[in-house]
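Continuing the batch. This is chain 6 of the set; chains 1 through 5 are on the previous pages. Same settings as before, nothing changed between runs. Recording input and output for traceability.
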Amino acid sequence: MEYTFISKDTFNGIIERYIISLPVSKQEKALINLELLDKIKNVLLNPKGHTICNKNTQIWIKKKFKLEEITPDDYRVIVKANNNLVLVVENMYKVLCRTHAEVTQHGGQKQTWKSLIEKWGWIKQNIVEKFVNNCTICAIRKPSFHPLAAKPIIAGDFLSLDNLFENSIRDEENISDTIQIFDNYIKNLDDDIVFGQG
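Output for chain 6:
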């Protein structure tokens, strides 16, 4: 099933860009797909089985995951850090869409993230943020606040009043000009002050 507010292609692009952005050594274990999930189950069910994967991967699996028996001979993988089920990549689109639309009702990044981590493990906040940013419903609702518009513009090269009066102002023919300054904000400015007479 594909949801209307974010396509599977858009979601797959988010996943691909996330994995590519990581160092090559971390890409394989960054997210868990069904193949890696089976490997995790096999290592945890056969702790002495050295043919499943290399020693470092076995140590990583034993450190990060545990099994929970659902029925005899049927297990699910739990993340030790938060005691939550592993969310595999193949189910991520459906779970994120359902959580974002039905549970949080397009509540934004924080609300979607909090709802997801209550039940699921091994999901990355960066992916949830990108997912919500690509939601067409949330994009319409989002206020258009641009932080750059609120910052002051600081100009470095401008002619200050001090510089204006220190240097004599001359026109193209090198004739000294008279400057008249009008200031509507200062009430005690004499109208007859003339600087730089020459």
